[in-house]
Amino acid sequence: MIKCLVVDDEPLAREAIKVYIEKMPELELVDECENALQAMAGLRSKHVDLIFLDIEMPEIDGISFLQMLKNIPGVIFTTAYRNYAVEAFDLDVIDYLLKPISFERFVSAINKYYERTNKPVSVLTELKKETVNYLNVKADRKTYKVDISKIQYIESLKDYVKIVCSDVSIVTHDSLSNMEAFLSEYAFIRIHRSFLVAIDKIKSFDSESVYLENNELPVSRTYKKSVLTILEK
């Protein structure tokens, strides 16, 4: 049994994870906490194999909490924000789940836990393994669900990024590095400090540029070798 601890200041968010845990016979919920201080107490009194950890919480955020721990169990971040992805993976967490979390995405994260710990994957391998196929993007006081398959490229605009899709362009407050980290499991390639491009949207290329259906984007010297290596395969 994988003994799980759920840490989130939002009751509904904790309940959603608890429902998923109950669906999987290999998982056992040993405690739930609404803040990092409760979680510290829980870790002292109970054996925990895996923490589902929110990031934005009052008093002590999830990343600071994780940095305080000496003996760290497996950690899966559960958050509504993409902009912590780079820092999270620097802490060697198992996965980074964006809310709302689908059950398929939850199962994918558990499979990663099994792979990381070299534990045998029993019935989990029979479940369909999927990843999130959209981005939740905040702009103009709204949240847009952007289909990842429609993204052509993403451009850095200082403290913002412009996500250019086949049907719409959206400017949101984020960084290109965060976008690159979140899309690391998808077929995107960094061609320039200012551009991240969907490989399947590239119609042609040379050593200086990549050509999309309606756009020509520059390839910088820094990324030229890696770009050509990937695209010439």
List keywords for this structure.
15 strands; 7 helices; alpha/beta; 30% helix; 233 residues; five-stranded antiparallel β-sheet
Strand content: 25-35%
In N-to-C order, the SSE pattern is EHEHEHEHEHEEEEEHEEEEEH
What do the pLDDT scores average to?
A: 88
Gap between N and C termini, in Å?
43 Å
Structure description:
This protein has seven helices and 15 strands. A five-stranded parallel beta sheet has the order 2-1-3-4-5. The protein has a five-stranded antiparallel beta sheet with strand order 10-9-8-12-11. A three-stranded antiparallel beta sheet has the order 13-14-15, with no helix packed on it. The termini are far apart.
Map the helices and strands.
Blueprint: E1 2-7, H1 11-23, E2 27-33, H2 36-45, E3 50-53, H3 62-68, E4 74-79, H4 85-90, E5 95-98, H5 103-117, E6 134-139, E7 142-147, E8 151-157, E9 160-165, E10 169-173, H6 176-182, E11 188-192, E12 195-198, E13 204-205, E14 209-211, E15 216-218, H7 221-231
Structure at a glance:
The protein is α/β, with parallel strands linked by helices and 233 residues long.
